[in-house]
Amino acid sequence: MTKCVLYLFACVAVATAHVCMISPPQRGSMLGINKMGAVDCMLVAGPCGKRAVGPAVALTGGQNFTVTFQKNLDHWVKATPGYFSIMWGLETMPLKELVRIPDMGQPSLSLFSVNVTIPTDKPGKGYILQTQYMTNNPKAPPTFYQCGDIIVM
Question: Which domain holds residue 112?
Fold first, then answer.
């Protein structure tokens, strides 16, 4: 029994906290994101880690916006490097990829900032900007998610 419990804790430690979204603010809190393995950053269910809609940031369609996220825990594998993807859309529909950033083995807690143009979709609707960490690592979950809520003005 003790070996099973230790194995479970080891698996949880390996499979937690991998991508945090800073701007727009991620759903949930940002408690502990400056430490590897932050609980509020371990979302493996798409599209938004099954987190409830949070306060929305109001942006104008066509506006440039800087998305900032953190690689909270590194899963880079030289033979099969992954990537980060910034996606846009309604949570209930397939999301559109706005930009892709290769994972080049940056260490845990590295920050990334990328400029995107907010699509000129229907004003007044609630959209999401989603960051995905696609690990391409067979020893890690395939994808980690974070979402920030947006209202297009």
Answer: 2-152
> What are the tens digits of pLDDT across the range 66-107?
999 999 999 999 999 999 999 999 988 999 999 999 999 999
- Report the predicted TM-score, pTM, of the whole model to 2 decimal places: 0.85
* Whether 43 contacts 73, CB under 8 Å: no
Q: How many domains does the chain have?
A: 1
CATH number at residue 37: 2.60.40.1930
